[in-house]
Backbone:
C-alpha cells in the first residue's frame, strides 16, 4: 500500500475511533433522564471509561513493542467500540450499563500505539505531517458526530441513535481488514521487550526527561477541562436552558 493510501485509511479509522466521544455528548442528558441517572453516576461512567482507557493504552503500547504488528488490534478497536456501544444501547439500568461503558475505554485506547507506531515508521521524514493529518481525523469525527446525534434525536430515541451509529464503525473495521497490510516495527527483535524492561524504560524516561513528564501533566490538565465541559455542558443546556437536541 502506498503511503498516501495508508495515511488516508488510518485517518479515517481514527475519525471513527473518536466518533462516539462526540456522539455521546448530546445523547447523555437523554440517556440519563430515561434511565434515572444523577450527575454523579454520569461522572462515574466517564471516569471509569478513562481509567480503563489509560491501562489499555499502556498495555497496547507494550503489546505492540513486544508482539509487533498491530493490524488486528486496530480492527478489534473499531469493531469492539461498535459492539460495546451496541450493548450500551440495550442496557436496562446503571448496573448493567456501567461495566459495558467502562469497557469501551479498553477497546478505544488500543488504536493509538499501533497506529502512531506505523505512521512513525512509514513517514520517518514527515512525522509531523502524518501525525497532524491523523489527528485531524479525530477532530473531524468529534466535530461531526454531535451534529449527527442532535438531529437524529429529533426523529428517534437515544438507543436507536447509538445502534444506527454502530454501522459506520463496523464498516470501517471491515475496510481496515480488507485494505490494511500486516506490519511489524523495524528491529523488533533486537530490543528487550519484556514487561519489566518496558516498565523500566517508562520510569527512566519520566525521571531522566522532565520535559516528557511536563508534557504528560499538561496533557492531563487539558483533558480534565475538555472532559468536564464535553460531559456536563449538554446537561446545562438541556436541564437549565431548555435546549433541544439540535443545540
Residues:
Amino acid at each position: 500500500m502506498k503511503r498516501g493510501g495508508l495515511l488516508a485509511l488510518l485517518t479515517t479509522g481514527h475519525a471513527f475511533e473518536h466518533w462516539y466521544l462526540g456522539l455521546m455528548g448530546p445523547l447523555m442528558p437523554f440517556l440519563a433522564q430515561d434511565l434515572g441517572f444523577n450527575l454523579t453516576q454520569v461522572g462515574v461512567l466517564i471516569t471509569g471509561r478513562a481509567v480503563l482507557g489509560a491501562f489499555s493504552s499502556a498495555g497496547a503500547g507494550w503489546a505492540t513493542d513486544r508482539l509487533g504488528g498491530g493490524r488486528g488490534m486496530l480492527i478489534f478497536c473499531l469493531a469492539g467500540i461498535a459492539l460495546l456501544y451496541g450493548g450500551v444501547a440495550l442496557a436496562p439500568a446503571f448496573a448493567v450499563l456501567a461495566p459495558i461503558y467502562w469497557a469501551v475505554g479498553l477497546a478505544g485506547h488500543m488504536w493509538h500505539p499501533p497506529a502512531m507506531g506505523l505512521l512513525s515508521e512509514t513517514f520517518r521524514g514527515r512525522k509531523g505531517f502524518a501525525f497532524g493529518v491523523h489527528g485531524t481525523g479525530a477532530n473531524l469525527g468529534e466535530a461531526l458526530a454531535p451534529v449527527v446525534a442532535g438531529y437524529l434525536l429529533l426523529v428517534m430515541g437515544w438507543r436507536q441513535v447509538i445502534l444506527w451509529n454502530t454501522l459506520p464503525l463496523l464498516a470501517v473495521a471491515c475496510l481496515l481488514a480488507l485494505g490494511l497490510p500486516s506490519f511489524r516495527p523495524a528491529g523488533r527483535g533486537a530490543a528487550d521487550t519484556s514487561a519489566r524492561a518496558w516498565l523500566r524504560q517508562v520510569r527512566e524516561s519520566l525521571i531522566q526527561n522532565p520535559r516528557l513528564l511536563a508534557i504528560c501533566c499538561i496533557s492531563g490538565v487539558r483533558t480534565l477541562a475538555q472532559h468536564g465541559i464535553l460531559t456536563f455542558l449538554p446537561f446545562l443546556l438541556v436541564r437549565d436552558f431548555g435546549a433541544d437536541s439540535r443545540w
Notes: DSSP finds eleven helices and no strands in the chain. Residues 8 and 134 are 8 Å apart (CA to CA).
